[in-house]
Each structure stands twice: as C-alpha cells, then as structure tokens.
Specification:
With 419 residues, the chain is of the alpha+beta class. It contains 12 helices and 17 strands.
Length: 419
C-alpha cells in the first residue's frame, strides 16, 4: 500500500509540476507579447491614451527593454546609439536643423541658390539677427513700405513675436537669437479672418528619405478681422498671428463642436469650403505636399549620416532600409523633390527588425496661403502639440498618433532575440 501510495503521490506531483510549468510558460508568453512604451518625457495624455489603446503598457526609465520611447525632447546620436534594434524613438538626431528658424533659413537659401528659379520660392525671405542685419537694411531700402515679423529662432506658441515696418523697429536687446521674416501682408481670408494650416508629416526613414503627409490637419484662425499692417494695428497679435496659444485667450475665440466653423477647423472642411468657392484644392494640396518634402530634403544627407553613425555603434545594426507602412491616413507620399505620388502601402507582416528604422518623426508644418492661393512655409515644429482641447483636436490628433503607431508595425517577438 505504501508503494502504491508513493506512486500516486509521484503522479500527482508530476502532474502538478507540469501544470505549473504550463502556467509559467503561458505567463511568460503573455509577458513577451506585450508592447512597452516609455513616456517619461512626454506630457501629452493623448499619447498615453492612444498607445494604451494600441496595446502598449507604459513603463518608466528604469525599464530598459521598452519597444517605443515617445519623448517631447530632441534626441542625440548618443541616445540612439544606446538603443537596441527592436526599439523605436519618435525623433531623428539632426532634425532640429529645420525646426530652428535660423537654421531652416540657411538651408532654404542654399537650396534656392542651387536649384532652378522658382523651386524654393515657397518660404518668405528671412534674415538672422544680428548677422544679416546689413542685408536686411539694404532690402528695406530697396523695398520701402514692407512689413516684417520678428521671431525667436527657437520659440514656439507665439512667444516673443512682434511686427515691425523696418530695421528701426527691431529690439536689438533680445535675450535669445531671433530672425526677421518678410510678412505675407495679402493672406487668403475666410469670412474676413486670416488663418494658417497645421500640416502633419511623418518621416519614417532618412536613407532613403521617406515622407508621408497626413490627409487631415487643422486650420487655425485669428480672432480679429484682418487689415493690412499699419502703424495703428501693428501690435494687434490676434489680427496678425494665428497661433492657437495666443488666440484662445481672446474673448472672440469661437468654440464649436463642428469641424467647419469656429476658430479651429478641420483641414478637410476648409478644403470643401475653398473648393466650393472655386479654388483648385487638388493643385494646392500637391503644392503643399511638395513644400513639405522640399523642406526636409536639404538636410537628408545630414540626417542619414547622423542616423548611420548612431546605429553603426551597436553590434548587429544595419542601415535604415525603410519599413513598409501599414495602411492608414498617411497616404500622400513623396519620394524626392517635385515628384509626388499618392500611395497606399500595405504590409501584412512587420518589416524585419534589421531593416526598420529605429527613428521616426511627426513634424508640424505651419503653412500660410496668400490671396492667390499660394502656400508659404512659416515654420516647422519639432514636437507639435498633441493637446486635445476640443473634439476636433481629439479626432485629428488621436488619428494621427494611431496611424503613426500602425506605421511602425512593431513586433514584440523581436525583443526576445535581444533580451
């Protein structure tokens, strides 16, 4: 009896052990299948909501093996060099070269000088203070009566911006570097108000350069009816500036639940309105898409060099081959100056870890239309706001973030090869 009992105990023990191993294996498989995102340097709840919706579990800096790091800060080559091949970060080292107004001006001037006339005429003339003030004075003498806008080269949200009629109006005691940009004094108006466009672009790889332009965006309106700049209205920021961060404090800011009314409107709603008024929206959209890639193109060699230098330092790294992109609303793709084509690229399986770029970037392009419907690049935003202050913000920005995440096509199993 004792021998039989021992045999039964052994069978039960063996069965319990097998069951435990199966549970442990299942738990380990579940753990391995999770995607993890580090949001320690991200202030936007929208990013937290959307990453969670897409299956990401939030971790902090102490967890080294995250899949995605979404940060509001720029990243250095050194930061990227520390990443494993399965990890992704939402900035490219070197991208600040077009997100600082002074540097952007220098790159566009070089391209304007090197390319055929008209290729790079989409950005207003810009002068850096103080280095180019003599050239600015000569310009003003040759073109009297103009208006100009002074901006901190690294500023955002309308801070430190003011209008002048010439060199004498510039405050030469700025705490930080500024640029002086020719003011587009004949903007296209809707209902008598000036507006600009926030256009979103996703850079998925830099060697080769691959840029997708998001189909939706936001039209942001000033809250004071527009008049051409004069000495009397030059200081009226809510007339001349369209920054949401400035106009939202105006008593005339119009909040609405719809996409086609109010001080913020959907880009697609604006297109519908302009098309009804006889504007060639399709041609305008093509020009804007070309503007986007022409702006990034000058720094492609710099971006590619920085990326290769960073990833070469990690064993097993390969150059950025550009992962295929899952279908979303990033359908307007441009590969090279002046050669737009609309594509919908589908991948039923993620690209291999070795081929996929470890960096990606969502850029915010601020574009102003003049009264002849020509787009003018105002500036490029390195970390465009993902704040959701309205239903329109929530719809546009949640969709934008979600499509960017789908474009990454992350594979949790890739982590197992490296951890």
């Amino acid at each position: 009896m004792r021998d039989g009992s021992s045999e039964g105990n052994l069978r039960r023990t063996s069965g319990t052990s097998t069951s435990r191993r199966r549970r442990e294996a299942a738990a380990a498989a579940l753990e391995a299948s999770k995607l993890r995102v580090n949001l320690s340097s991200c202030k936007y709840e929208s990013v937290r909501e959307v990453t969670k919706k897409h299956g990401y579990e939030e971790v902090d800096d102490e967890y080294e093996h995250w899949d995605l790091n979404w940060t509001d800060l720029s990243v250095s080559e050194h930061r990227v060099s520390k990443m494993l091949p399965f990890q992704r970060v939402n900035h490219f080292p070197g991208m600040m070269e077009i997100c600082r107004k002074g540097a952007l001006s220098r790159h566009l001037k070089k391209m304007r000088a090197a390319c055929p006339a008209g290729t790079y005429d989409f950005a207003p003339e810009t002068w850096e203070h103080p280095n180019e003030m003599e050239a600015f004075r000569k310009h003003c003498k040759a073109h009297p009566g103009g208006s100009y806008i002074v901006k901190p080269t690294a500023g955002a949200m309308g801070r430190g911006i003011y209008l002048v009629r010439g060199p004498d109006g510039i405050d030469h005691k700025h705490e930080s570097a500024v640029v002086v940009q020719k003011y587009v004094s004949s903007p296209l108006l809707v209902d008598g108000y000036k507006f600009d466009l926030r256009i979103y672009a996703l850079v998925t790889c830099v060697d080769p350069l691959c840029v997708y332009v998001y189909e939706e965006g936001i039209a942001r309106f000033a809250t004071t009816r527009y008049q051409k700049p004069t000495a009397a209205n030059l200081a009226s920021k809510t007339m001349h500036l369209t920054n949401y961060s400035l106009n939202k404090h105006s008593a005339d800011f119009v909040h609405t639940e719809t996409d086609d009314e109010g001080t913020k409107r959907a880009l697609t709603a604006l297109w519908k309105d302009l098309r009804a008024k006889g504007h060639d929206v399709d041609a305008l959209w093509r020009e804007i898409r070309e503007l986007v890639v022409k702006t990034v193109a000058p720094i492609q060699p710099l971006l590619a060099h920085a990326y290769r230098a960073a990833t070469r330092s990690r064993e097993g790294a390969s150059r950025d081959g550009g992962a295929e992109t899952r279908e979303g609303r990033f359908r307007s793709k441009i590969n090279g100056i002046g050669s737009p084509r609309t594509t919908t690229t589908r991948s039923d399986a993620p690209a291999s870890t070795s081929d996929a770029s470890r960096c990606f970037e969502i850029l915010g392009f601020d574009v102003l239309l003049d009264d002849r419907s020509r787009p003018h690049l105002v500036e490029v935003n390195h970390s465009p706001s993902f704040g959701m202050d309205s239903p329109l913000d929530r719809r546009v920005k949640s969709g934008l973030i979600g499509d960017a995440l789908r474009a990454l096509a992350p594979d949790p199993a890739a982590r197992a090869a490296w951890v």
